[in-house]
Specification:
- By secondary structure, the chain is of the alpha/beta class.
- The chain has a domain at 46-54 and 103-260: Rossmann fold.
- The protein is built from 12 helices and 9 strands.
- The strands form 2 sheets. It has a 6-stranded parallel sheet, with helices on both faces. Strands 2-1-9 form a 3-stranded antiparallel sheet.
- Strand 1 and strand 2 form a beta hairpin.
Length: 270
């Protein structure tokens, strides 16, 4: 897919207006900047407008081709942030030349920074044993005054009914504004869709490996590699056993599919 193909140039949204979307193989990915994403989160927290935010790249889009349930979950999200340069290139191809990557780990840091003004209360759900607590320690040190009102590490198995109810009570008792969900895709998207009706926190955000990155347990790709769209290769070298199937299967499948069905802007009223 050529990002230089001529398409109508579409403007950024008006302040407070609906956020534009791009059809990427049936997934409605928002054309965004960090400020637009943060402003939408701030709006939802302010008026307690409950929704969940997915941070979606090639993996999430390809998995959505195989699962109608996951496709529905993405398209019912309050925001589908373009994680990975292929999602950004898709939005630019559709006409949103101003669109930028909204990378989960960086969105999390930007939200923590904005919390100095907004006073947002945060909850960390996910990660391996002890990771969420380590994450809290590091971020509170990095952002003095940051309110992290709770953490929880779930078991690596499906929750039973009593456990689901207990998790919902635990989150509600902490009264967070944002619940950051550090599970893998598509597990975290399914978790957010399942729990959205059962917790009062207005915003749930699935950020995957951000917990391990910000806890200092996993290295992030250098910015230049991210800008080139090669973060997948960097992570594959770091975690070949866990990621080889995802990247070496899904990436070629995405390229083949996007050639047949190029991205397009979705009518803002649709």
């Amino acid at each position: 897919m050529s990002t230089s193909a001529r398409r109508p140039k579409l403007p950024p949204p008006e302040p407070g207006g609906p956020l534009p979307r791009t059809d990427v193989l049936g997934v409605a990915v928002n054309a965004l900047t960090y400020d637009l994403a943060l402003d939408e989160i701030e709006r939802r927290v302010a008026v307690r407008d409950r929704g969940y935010v997915t941070i979606t790249g090639v993996h999430g889009v390809v998995e959505s081709q195989r699962s109608p349930e996951l496709l529905r979950i993405h398209n019912e999200a309050a925001l589908v942030c373009p994680d990975g340069m292929p999602m950004v290139w898709s939005s630019r191809y559709a006409g949103y030349g101003w669109a930028e990557r909204v990378y989960g780990p960086d969105l999390m840091l930007a939200a923590c920074e904005r919390s100095a003004r907004t006073g947002w209360r945060h909850f960390f759900y996910g990660g391996g044993e002890g990771v969420a607590d380590l994450l809290r320690e590091r971020l509170v040190t990095r952002f003095p005054g940051l309110q992290v009102v709770g953490t929880h590490t779930p078991p690596f198995r499906p929750l039973v009914d009593d456990e689901r109810a207990e998790v919902a009570r635990l989150i509600d008792d902490a009264r967070p504004d944002i619940v950051w969900v550090g599970l893998s895709t598509p597990k975290q998207e399914r978790w957010m869709a399942e729990f959205r009706p059962h917790v009062e926190a207005p915003v749930l955000v699935g950020v995957g490996a951000a917990f391990d990155f910000h806890a200092g347990l996993l290295d992030q790709a250098p910015p230049r590699i991210q800008q080139m769209g090669l973060e997948w290769a960097y992570r594959l070298v770091k975690e070949p056993r866990r990621l080889w199937r995802r990247y070496l299967t899904n990436n070629p499948a995405f390229v083949a599919a996007i050639v047949r069905r190029p991205p397009s802007a979705i009518d803002i009223e649709a």
